[in-house]
TrEMBL record:
Pfam hit, one: DUF1573
Protein name per UniProt: DUF1573 domain-containing protein
InterPro entries the UniProt entry points to: DUF1573, Ig-like_fold
Taxonomy, superkingdom: Bacteria
Organism: Marivirga arenosa
Length: 367
C-alpha cells in the first residue's frame, strides 16, 4: 500500500515538474521589444513625397525570433525591413513610408507584424495630416479644347425631376495669350439653352456661362446624354463639343396620407433573379411578376435596360387596382464572359417608388 502511495506521489511530482518546465518555456519564449509603436508625422505637404519613419526594436530574449510577415493596412503605406531572423540581443528596424499624393486630410494607418516570439502579433501605427497641394490651372480645369479649359466636357446636372428647368453655371478659362470671345450662338436640342453670352474672356482669366436644361420638354426618364456645341472666335478649335448629362425622375407634388392611400402602388414578388452558370451564346428568359396593390390605375411609363444584351417585354402598360402583371426579361449571353449583372429599370406613376430596378445575374462560361 505504501508503494502505491509512493508511486502516486512521485507521478504527481513529475507531472508538476513538466508543467513548470512548459510554463517556463512559454514565458521565456522569444520577446520582441519596440522603442515606440506609434508615430505622428504632424502636418505634411501632399507634394513633398513619401513620409518615412523608422521603428526600432530588439530581441530581448535568449531565443532567436523570426519575422513571419509585415503587412500594411493599405497600398499607400509601404514597410521596409532588413532581416527576418534576429538572434538574442539583436536589434532591427522597420521603415514605414506613407505616400500622401492624392490623399489630402487626416490619415491613420497600421502595419501588422507577425513573429515567432511573444507577442506573436504587434501593430505599429502612423498618423498625420496631409496639407493639400495648391491646384494648378491644369488641375482645376482638366479639359482642354483649343484655348479654352474647363473642368469637364460633361455638364452634369445629376438627379433632377420634371418639375422645372434647371440652370447650371459653367466656368471657362482662357489659357491663351489673346482675348477669346464666347459667341452668342450654340447648337443643341430645343430643351437646352445657353445664356450669359456673348462673353469676353481676357487671357488667363475665367468667365461663366449658364446652361439651362428643360427636363419636362426632354420627355425622357432615366439617364440622358445630350450634345451641346458652343462657339468662340478662335481661328482653330472654335467649336467646343460638350455633353449635357442628367438622370431625370418624374416629379410628384407633395401628397397627403389620404391621397397616397388612393394612389397606385407596384409590388413585385421578387426583384432579382440569378440564371446561375450558363454557356456563352445561351439566350435566357425570366418573368418578373408584380401586382398593383394600390387603388388607382398603375401606368408603366417606360422600361430601360443597361445594355443591348437585355430586352424587357410588357403585354400592356396600364393595370387596374389589384391586377397582376408580368415583365418578361430576355438575356442574350453572346459575346459575354464571366459574371454578368444587368439592370432593368421601370418608371411608373407610383408616387412612393416611381423608379424600380430589377436585377438579373448569370455566370457565362466559355463553350
Amino acid at each position: 500500500m505504501k508503494n502505491i502511495h509512493l508511486f502516486k506521489s512521485t507521478l504527481a511530482i513529475v507531472f508538476l515538474f513538466f508543467i513548470h518546465i512548459a510554463v517556463f518555456a512559454q514565458n521565456n519564449k522569444g520577446k520582441i521589444t519596440f522603442v515606440d509603436e506609434a508615430h505622428d508625422f504632424g502636418t505634411i505637404e501632399e507634394a513633398s513625397g513619401m513620409a518615412k519613419y523608422t521603428f526600432k526594436f530588439v530581441n530581448s530574449s535568449p531565443d532567436s525570433i523570426r519575422l513571419t510577415s509585415v503587412r500594411a493596412s493599405c497600398g499607400c503605406t509601404t514597410p521596409y525591413w532588413e532581416k527576418d531572423v534576429l538572434m538574442p540581443g539583436d536589434s532591427g528596424k522597420i521603415e514605414v513610408a506613407y505616400n500622401p499624393l492624392n490623399r489630402p486630410g487626416k490619415f491613420n494607418k497600421t502595419v501588422t507584424i507577425r513573429t515567432t516570439g511573444q507577442p506573436s502579433t504587434k501593430i505599429l501605427r502612423i498618423s498625420g495630416y496631409v496639407k493639400p497641394k495648391p491646384k494648378s490651372i491644369e488641375d482645376e480645369y482638366a479639359t482642354e479644347i483649343g484655348g479654352i479649359r474647363m473642368r469637364s466636357k460633361f455638364i452634369n446636372f445629376g438627379n433632377i425631376t420634371t418639375e422645372k428647368p434647371i440652370t447650371k453655371k459653367i466656368e471657362l478659362y482662357n489659357q491663351s495669350e489673346d482675348t477669346i470671345n464666347i459667341l452668342d450662338r450654340f447648337v443643341s436640342a430645343d430643351f437646352i439653352s445657353v445664356s450669359k453670352t456673348p462673353v469676353m474672356i481676357p487671357p488667363k482669366e475665367a468667365k461663366e456661362i449658364e446652361v439651362t436644361y428643360m427636363p419636362k420638354m426632354r420627355n425622357e426618364l432615366g439617364f440622358v446624354n445630350d450634345p451641346l456645341t458652343i462657339f468662340t472666335d478662335e481661328l482653330e478649335n472654335s467649336n467646343k463639343a460638350l455633353n449635357v448629362v442628367a438622370t431625370i425622375n418624374e416629379y410628384f407634388p407633395p401628397m397627403t396620407e389620404e391621397q397616397l392611400s388612393q394612389a397606385p402602388h407596384i409590388e413585385f414578388e421578387t426583384m432579382e433573379y440569378d440564371f446561375g452558370h450558363i454557356d456563352e451564346g445561351d439566350q435566357m428568359t425570366h418573368v418578373f411578376q408584380f401586382t398593383n396593390t394600390g387603388k388607382d390605375s398603375l401606368n408603366i411609363r417606360k422600361t430601360k435596360t443597361t445594355c443591348g444584351c437585355t430586352i424587357s417585354e410588357l403585354s400592356k402598360m396600364d393595370y387596374a387596382a389589384g391586377e397582376l402583371g408580368e415583365i418578361k426579361v430576355l438575356f442574350n449571353s453572346t459575346g459575354r464572359r464571366g459574371t454578368q449583372i444587368k439592370r432593368i429599370t421601370l418608371f411608373t406613376n407610383d408616387p412612393t417608388a416611381p423608379t424600380q430596378d430589377l436585377i438579373i445575374k448569370a455566370y457565362v462560361r466559355d463553350k
